[in-house]
Amino acid sequence: MSNELKFRLPKVLPYFTRFGQHWRWNVKSLVSPHHALQERVRGKVVLLTGASSGIGAQVACELGAAGATVALVARNREKLEVIARDIRNAGGNAEVYPGDLTDLEECDRICRTIEKAHGRVDLLINNAGRSIRRSIKFTYDRFHDYERTMQLNYLAAIRMAMNVLPGMEARNEGHIINVSTVGVQANPARFSAYLGSKWALEGWTWVAANEFAHTNIRFSSLNYPLVRTPMIAPTKIYKYMPVMSVDTAVKWMLDVIITQNKRKLGIFGKGALSMYYLLPKTSESIVNLSYQTIFEDPPENYVSAKTRRRASANEEGHTNTIARRHQQDAE
Ligand SMILES: NC(=O)c1ccc[n+]([C@@H]2O[C@H](COP(=O)([O-])OP(=O)(O)OC[C@H]3O[C@@H](n4cnc5c(N)ncnc54)[C@H](OP(=O)(O)O)[C@@H]3O)[C@@H](O)[C@H]2O)c1
Fold first, then answer.
1. Where in this protein does the record put region Disordered (predicted)?
2. What are phi and psi of 330, to 5 degrees?
3. Choice among 15, 194, 276, 302 that is catalytic
4. To test the ligand 1 pocket, which listed residue (184, 227, 264) has its Cβ within 8 A of the most ligand atoms?
5. d(CA 105, ligand 1 centre) in Å
C-alpha cells in the first residue's frame, strides 16, 4: 500500500438517475401499490430471513403472490414448509432454507445454496431478530444478553449482506433491507441489549448506503414501532397498549421494497428524535419516569444493590476487625 494521496473523478450522473427514480417509485407506491410491487419483484429472487413467523411470514406470502421467488430462512423447518406450501398453492415460487443464523458459517452455507439454486439474490431482507427486555442493573451477570442480540441482529445480518453483495456489485443491482426498530430513535429503558444491536445494524446500513450511492445497490432501514407478533407476546403490559398490526407492518415493508427509500419511520419516531435533539434532558426524564413507574421482576440469582452494600459493609467491618486485632497484637 502506498502512502501517496490519489484522487479520481467521481461519477455524479447516477445521483440524477436515482433522484428521478426515487420520485417515480414513490408516486407508484402511493397510487397503485399492488401493481408497483409486482413490477418491482416479478421474476426477482428474494432472500427473506425470519420468514417463519410474524411480519416475515406475511411478507413472504405477499412477495410470492407478486411474482417473486422467495427463499425462506428461519430455524423452524415445519413452519417454513407451511408458508412455502401456501405460496405455491397460490401460484407463487418459494423454497425453504432452514438454519440457525447465529452460526455465521450457517449464514454462508445458506447464501451459497440459495445463489446456486436460483442464480442470484436480488433482494435481501434481514428480518430475523430477537429482543431482550431487561434493565442494565439486571444484566451485570448476564453478558450473554448482549452477545446473543449482537450475534443475530447485527453479525448475522452483516454476514448475509457480505455473502450477497459481491453478486449485487457484479450485476450493479440489488437492495438490502435491514429491519430495525423505532427504539433506535426513542431509546426506551430496558432494551439496552436489543437496541445496541439494532443501532449497530443501522450504523452499518447508513455507511453502506453512502458507499454504494453511485451504484444501483440500495440499502434501507425499517424502524418499526411495537407490532402485534409473537416477539412481544411475553411482555404482559403490551397486551394493553395500542400497537401496530401485522397488516400495517407488512404494508410498511412492501412500501420500502417498492420505493427503496432509505428509511421508513413513523410520526412517533420522528417526534422522539426531535424531542431528543431539542430537549435532551427532558426527553431523558420522560423515559426515566416510565422506567421507574413500571415494576420489573429481577432475574434469578440477582443480587440487589442493597444486598451488595450490606455485603461490602460486612466485609469492611470484618477487615477493620482483623486490622484492629493485628494492631493490638503489635502493641
Ligand atoms: N414485533 C415488534 O414489536 C417489533 C418492533 C420493532 C422491530 N421488530 C423487528 O421486526 C423483525 C421481525 O420480528 P417479528 O415481530 O416478526 O418477530 P417474530 O414473530 O418473533 O419473528 C422472528 C423471526 O426470526 C426468526 N429467528 C429467530 N432467531 C433466529 C435464528 N437464530 N436463526 C434464524 N432465524 C431466527 C424466527 O424464526 P425461528 O424461530 O423459526 O428461527 C422468526 O421467523 C425483527 O427483526 C424485530 O427485531 C419487531
1. 306-331
2. -65, -35
3. 194
4. 227
5. 20
Q: Is residue 183 part of a domain?
A: yes
With a 6 A CB cut-off, is 230 part of the ligand 1 pocket?
yes
- Is the shortest distance between the CB of 46 and ligand 1 below 6 Å? no
pLDDT in tens, 53-94: 999 999 999 999 999 999 999 999 999 999 999 999 999 999
Question: Cell triple for residue 27?
Answer: 408516486
Specify the number of domains making up the chain.
Answer: 1
- Rounded to two decimals, the pTM is 0.93
- Angle at which helix 33-41 crosses helix 13-31, to 10 degrees, equals 130
- Reported as a single tens digit per residue, the pLDDT across 268-320 is 999 999 999 999 999 999 999 999 999 999 888 788 777 878 877 777 776 67
Ligand 1 neighbourhood includes 56 CB (under 6 angstroms): yes
Assign residue 180 the CATH number of its domain.
3.40.50.720
Ligand 1: distance of its center to the CA of 128 in Å? 4
145 CA distance to ligand 1 middle (Å): 16
Among this protein's residues, is 276 annotated catalytic?
A: no
Q: Provide the residue range defining the domain that includes 86.
A: 13-281
Specify if 234 maps to a domain. Answer: yes
Triad 114, 119, 122: Cα angle to 5° = 80
In a domain, residue 316? The reply is: no
| Residues near 126 by beta carbon (within 8 Å), at least 6 away in sequence | 49, 156, 157, 160, 161, 176, 177, 178, 179, 201
